Amino acid sequence: MEAAFQAGIAQASLQVLLERITDFAVKETSLILGVDDEIRRLQRTLQRIRAILDIVGNNQQSLLKHSSTEAWKMWAADLEKHSYSAEDLLDEISLDLLQVGADYLNEANESYQVRNMLLSSFKLSMPHEIGKIRKELEDIATEMDSLVLTKMSELGSYKLPAKSCLTSNFFAKSTSSLVDEGFVVGREKDKDEIVKMLLTANANRSNVSVIPLVGMGGIGKTTLAQIVYNDNQVVKNFDLRVWISVSVNFDVIGITKSIIESLTGKKCKLSDLDPIQCKLQSLLSGRKFLLVLDDYWTEKYGDWDSLTCPFRVGLRGSKVVVTTRSSVVASILGTFPAYHLKVLNDKDCWELMKQRAFANKDPEENMNMEEMGRKIAKKCRGLPLAAQSLGGMLHFQFDEEEWECILNSELWDLPQEKNDIFSSLLISYHFLPSHLKKCFAYCSIFPRNHEFERDKLVLLWMAEGFIQPRGGKRLEDVGSDYFNELIWRSFLQFSHVNLYNQSMYKMHDLVHGMARLISANTCFCLAEDISYWHPALANARHMSLGHANLQQIVSKPSTWCKNLRTLLLMPRNSKSTVQLSYELFLKLRFLRALDLCCMDIYEIPDSIEYLKHLRFLNLSENHIQNLPESITNILGLQTLVLKNCFEFLELPANLKKLTNLRHLDLDIKHQLNYMPSDLGNLVNLQTMNAFIVGKGKGCGIGQLGNMRFLRGSICITNLENVLSVMEANEANLCMKPFLESLQLEWNYSGDRIDQQEVLAGLQPHPNLKELAITNYGGFMFPSWLGGPLLKLRTIHIRSCQYCSVLPSLGQLPLLKHLCIENLSSLASIDDHFCGFGPTKGFRSLELLIFQNMPNLMEWKGLDGHDMPLLRELTFINCPRLTSLPSLHNLSFLHNLNISHCPKLQALPEQGLPVSLQILIILESAIIKERCRVEEGEDWYKIKRIPKIEIDYVQIPMVA
To answer: Which segments constitute the Disease resistance protein winged helix domain (predicted)?
Structure first.
């Protein structure tokens, strides 16, 4: 089976190379005449190899079983190695041409002559280099072809059987409805939930409802379906029950015939679809049936529609239970929400193991083995199939040393003939689309239990060239689709939402083990002494290092990094400090992704320019103050991450050369004093968190104009350097539909009339979700800020000292969070604030904060229909505020916070809403006195609020 894994990853590598060659032939060979023939020869060779691998994939049961798997493994490894070499060659040529084009456009000295010389050199060298790789591949193809023909001749079969039959026979096992419930552990709650669904009347109009059971291979979907199928309540509830094992071989005629044969107990001799379906329809008509389709794989709507046509005549309340590994399948066929099966706990895994390990043995004789057995059970990571397989292995082991050997072994290293986990997960990998196989295998460079963040992993896949263009869709979006597909197929699982509100994902230990196995030739995750692994690293392409002393490792790069494409340094402690040598980057010349985050680095050597293939560079959380100018020679760079580099002062002057840069991820706007000139050249930028408006040529806000793909968030500072509405319009913010968050910052007030015009010209696209305006010096806000077409969810207005009137923010239909802070000229709020027209009144507002408002005295004009969803209302440091509007109609209000409002005379006369749960009063003497327990004039207004806190003292609730 390892040969099957290797063949699969080799196929994926060939597919990536073929797509790369096709793209190269379209874009580059027109510049380098005379190489078309060699490119075509290489393509033909690759297509020939792919055809051979298809034959092997379709005939694994016969070919790999009778021939040398070691030979196939060697060929697969060599194919992958030569595919990488070919990709590197094509990439190097493309980058050289890009450099020539950049020099030509920049009118570099003698650039025209240099260009012609380089193109001439390519004409001479490129056919030779490509031909060399092609010859290696042709030799492999000839050897493989010879063995395939020999073995097929020996087997007497030149006519290849259908792929679906072969793969089904090789990988899958048929299942039946029979189960011994005494051997089922930890599924009581799941069983009750599914039985409840089966006995529930159909919620939709259809007579038949579908319940998908979803989970990774080996998690127990079939077992759960079996115990539900045989439950007494279920048996009594249905007139007919049928169990069908579908597996990977979807055949609508075969499945329908199997259903008929199960219902009649006779062989179905019909052969055409129409009479077969008519027969089934007559058997189901007017009867309440339960059908289980176990191990359903096909993701084609048409297959499901065709299969289920006869089901519709069943009596209302009929149910179909489908077990599947794919959430895509569940979304196609489910009428009930998919039921996602979770892993077992360690205790239940041990119970399953113990059943097999101690079967027909006296438990008292094995008490001393139990402690070790419980440790082994943890290796299952909650997977029932793993527990059963390990239990079966332990049954034949009779002493503690043998058990300890299993405890200290990786599950993948255990004998494959006794290891059902292997074949169960192999089928999931085998049926991954080729574009996902490389992406999945790549994940093995991360340590076990690593938490994946979608965007970062997608950018790494992009850097490696794994993501192929799909129509006009962004590569990042295509990569996100890849990520989703791995989730839907149970290769990745949701873990939690982190502090930055990002969803994090994990890979089950056994799935991670499978990824390590299939990528063993090229992907390495090294956490210990690298010298032990040295012999295996000759062809290493992707690597993460988690050594405690990384300095010792990177100081001697020649021993391990010759062919590396990915290098992720992952220090095992926070004190790891690495000093990068000039020689290191000379050795890493094929590197495409480099992650040096959190390495305590102070300086990046000039030799970084030798990483000409580099696409992804992460330098976050280091002490660097600048980047070497030579970095601007890495023309293929797509992603540059500089987050939390608090000492960083300046970007390279020629950053404009990096025209392929898509993500400049920095949150260092307060350290930088200026931006490099002519950043407008970076028209492919999608992420740029900060832009500092300068005064010189090529440094103005107009540089943002052509960056039409900008998305995410951006903070534009030093807006005092924008002197007119015409300059502001040049930023084209209204033409950036993908921006979600915008911060507009002035450093000082400047000319107030000019700033009014500038802010008017900075109108964003209606899709913007978050807006912050700081230190704006105008008298009033532009009309667009209250426009009902804006989709703003969050607004923060602060330190706008000359604004005496708030805009009509109540007209924004989707606004949820509003914070107004430090507006020293604002004395009164009236009904203009809530707005006018059909969307007035803050229809969606949930949080409202007024903070540091030195002259605010009153708020009036709030009517009974305004702010219907407001949950939190806060007044902080409003020293002149004397009264609050009527708050009693705010029927959703949960929290009210009044802090440092010493002149506030009383709570609203009409009282507070009954929904209020928390009231906090701090440093507000008059209100504090009026709210004294039992005696204060406003006590009756608050006494039933569950939580009252006055000057940090919690007041007990009155019963």
So the answer is: 445-515
- Specify if 663 maps to a domain: no
Q: What share of the chain is helix, strand, coil (3-state, %, to 5)?
A: 45, 15, 45
User: Tokens representing 471?
Assistant: 């129509």
Residue for token pair 């964003």: 764
Single out the residue in 291, 322, 340 at which a domain terminates: 340
- Nearest alpha carbon to residue 184 among 238, 223, 144: 223
Please give the Cα distance from 242 to 831 (Å, whole number). 67
Closest CA to 20 of 54, 46, 2: 46
Structure confidence by residue, pLDDT tens digits, 221-240: 999 999 999 999 999 999 99
Residues of the chain falling short of pLDDT 50: 108-109, 158-171, 531-532
The CA distance from 467 to 307, in Å, is 34
CA distance 111 to 102: 9
User: Per the structure, how many domains does the chain have?
Assistant: 7
CA torsion, points 813, 815, 819, 823, in degrees to nearest 10?
A: -30
Handedness of CA 400, 405, 410, 415 (dihedral sign): negative
Over the range 383-394, which residues count as b (16 or more CB within 10 Å of their CB) and which as e? bbbbbbbbbbbb
CA-to-CA distance for 765 and 685, rounded, in angstroms?
A: 18
- Note whether 777 and 801 are within 8 A (CB): yes
Residues in Cβ contact with 266 at an 8 Å cutoff, skipping those fewer than 6 apart: none
- Domain assignment of residue 713, given as a range: 683-775
Dihedral angle sign, alpha carbons of residues 41, 42, 45, 50: negative
Start-end of H helices in 358-466:
367-378, 384-395, 400-407, 420-430, 434-442, 454-464
Token pair, residue 888, equals 């009693």
335 and 351, same domain (yes or no):
no
Any idea what the CATH number is for the domain that residue 595 is in?
Answer: 3.80.10.10
CATH, residue 253:
3.40.50.300
Q: 222 and 142: one domain?
A: no
Quote the Cα angle for 776-779-783, to 5°. Answer: 85
Per residue in 343-375, pLDDT (tens digit) is 999 999 999 998 888 877 665 666 678 888 889
Q: Identify which of 672, 799, 691, 805 has the alpha carbon closest to the alpha carbon of residue 748.
A: 799
Q: Which residues pair with 665 in a beta bridge?
A: 641
Q: Identify the three-state secondary structure at position 806.
A: coil
Overall pTM > 0.85: yes
Q: Is the same domain home to 293 and 233?
A: yes
Strand partners, 713: 741
